[in-house]
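Lab notebook, bench 4. The sequencing result for the construct came back, and we need a structural model before the next group meeting so we can plan mutations. Quick request posted to the team channel:

Model the 3D structure of this chain.
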Amino acid sequence: MENILIILENKTEINSRLINEYKSIIKTKGANITFSTIVQIPYKFPIDSEDKDLQEKFNESEHILKSFESNLNQIKIPNSRMNGLIFKVRDFFFGIIELSKEVNSDLIILPKTLFENFSEMLISNQETSTIESVSFRGVKGINNLISNFKSSILLWQDSK
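Done. Here's the predicted structure in token form:
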């Protein structure tokens, strides 16, 4: 496992628990670890927009990245490269797919709550969406996620 992609939750304390729970996977010697927050940009803005209406999202994302990196540094990962980034997308689901391809991930650690939020968006947009939502162990849309990735997926659920 060379390339690990971690999609972060919007709460620093939850991300901290993710590190503690998957420390053994994250500390794989020589792994490239990419951790990311995903900001969905509304269509009324250009994708590279820095509009003041989006600044709160960017500031929050920056705070989450810095906090996560600080927590990663505390567990002392040997010979690994870490990269944190804010990924701007139009669509959350396809954004994760694109980011996974961009970093050539072997493993994606994805908080189950983020995926569940995406599944709710699918249901509410069912008339306009061509994505089929299938339930697997209580998580809707998992088949679409799996079929679009060329990497392993670890759906992480916070135990608290």
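Residues 40 and 91 are 6 Å apart (CA to CA).
Will bring this to the meeting.
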